[in-house]
Amino acid sequence: MTAIRTRAHAAKFARELGGSLRDLKHCSPSQIHTHDDCARKHFWGKRYGLPDPGSPATELGTRVHDVLDVRLGTGKWPEHRDAERAVRIARGGFGYLPKDIDKLPKHIEAQMDLATPTLPMVGRVDLVLPTLSLVIDHKSASSRRWAKTAAELRTDPQGISYPVWAQRQFDLPYPLRFAHVGYMTKGAPGGFYTEVVWEEAPLMQAWAAVQAKVGVIQTDAAKLDPADVAPNWEACGKYGGCPFFAQCTKVAGAGVSTSTQGGLIMALENELLASLAGKRKTDEAIEASTLGKVATLPTNTGQQTGSGLGGLALEVAMSPAGALDAVLAGSAAPVAVMTVGDGTNGTEVMTTLIAAMDPGAVNPPDAVAPTELPTKRPAAKKAKKKPTTRKPTGTLYIG
User: Fold this and answer.
1) In what order do the strands lie in the sheet with 176-184?
2) N or C terminus: fewer CB in 10 A for the chain?
3) Number of Cβ within a 10 Å radius of residue 199
């Protein structure tokens, strides 16, 4: 196909692909994640408006968020049958929320609108607890292998923009805390907790980097020809496969010939199958070896010192692996909160929960997460017995 140089041509091509040409009005943390994975994937969705069918996992995560909002807002879990699975999952990680969560002032599903030099950053912040200077994002996950570490949260767009917005919106005092509270969607109910602590200077430095990314995204999203936006072919197989792969192979300068497309598709299929096999093996190993006790592991080694979290913590002076082994062996308390750095000599305080026993590390759930939710079933009606005619017995003499 020929290069696209006019808005009318771009609009026509977008319609042919099932989308509609549009201008990017705002950015969000999820858009930054998508653009980081593949700039052209972001272009297809936000510039050309191609529909993304989503996934069952995404839909389930939304339902878990919904029941958590109800529970945190009303103090009660939804009771309708459609919410049973989501409630079961949410209860598994509910205990990782701060102690006395029902008594704390809170803002649930707050709308973020944060100005940048280019596009505004928008999003929905799951939970803000002003008295703790704590911002929480709920995360549904099929395995703890997907849990981010504290180091990863320090570069995560949510882990940066949400605290910045919350501090300005509610005048929160530093240090600020941002945490992922996880809810396991597979296996026994359970969860995880990972937290990062922000002082003002490093947070502002990280926020400047996020704003620079927003500027790059705005530039890419203003282009007309998808061929002018760089693809990342290595990301095609992520998250079950990119929904825009077929469109990418059609654009001018795609760099994938017809003869090569078959080989690439086969490679992506093999990559996906290998990923699924590895994931299943990893999940089975985690479940078998830890019985749901592992949350996240820091990547550093050396001497560590426990740090308090809600009054429950384990002081350890060993490598992370040694601390974990002690927890799993039952010779140490079930909570280990690792602190890396003490704020001196240029080091930053960074706290990560590395091991926790379900159903909660700090605040036990208000109800134990059941393995099976009880359901009310109508009592079975007893079948009416048909009257039976007794046959006469013996001998009848007539005379």
Assistant:
1) 107-114, 121-129, 134-141, 176-184, 191-198, 350-355, 336-340, 305-306
2) C
3) 13
Average pLDDT over residues 3-22: 94
Q: Compute φ and ψ for 365, nearest 5 degrees.
A: -55, 155
C-alpha torsion angle, residues 332, 337, 340, 343 (rounded to 10): -130
Bridging pattern class, strands 176-184 and 134-141? parallel
* Total length of the chain: 399
For residue 194, give every residue at least 6 positions away whose Cβ sits within 8 Å of its Cβ, in sequence order, or none: 147, 148, 149, 150, 153, 179, 180, 182, 295, 296, 352, 353
Res 200: pLDDT: 96
Exposure letters 312-327 (e unless 16+ CB within 10 A, then b): bbbebeeebeebbebb
**Confidence band of 58 (pLDDT split at 50, 70, 90):** confident
Give the Cα separation of 247 and 225 in Å (integer). 12
For residues 33 and 155, the answer to whether their CB atoms sit within 8 Å is no
Please confirm whether the linkage preceding 231 is cis (ω < 30° from 0): no
**Per mean pLDDT, which range of 52-66, 130-144, 291-305 is the poorest?**
291-305
pLDDT of residue 322: 38
The pLDDT value recorded for residue 248 is 86
| Nearest Cα residue to 159 out of 358, 350, 356 | 350
Across all residues in the chain, what is the average pLDDT? Answer: 74
pTM for this model (two decimals): 0.69
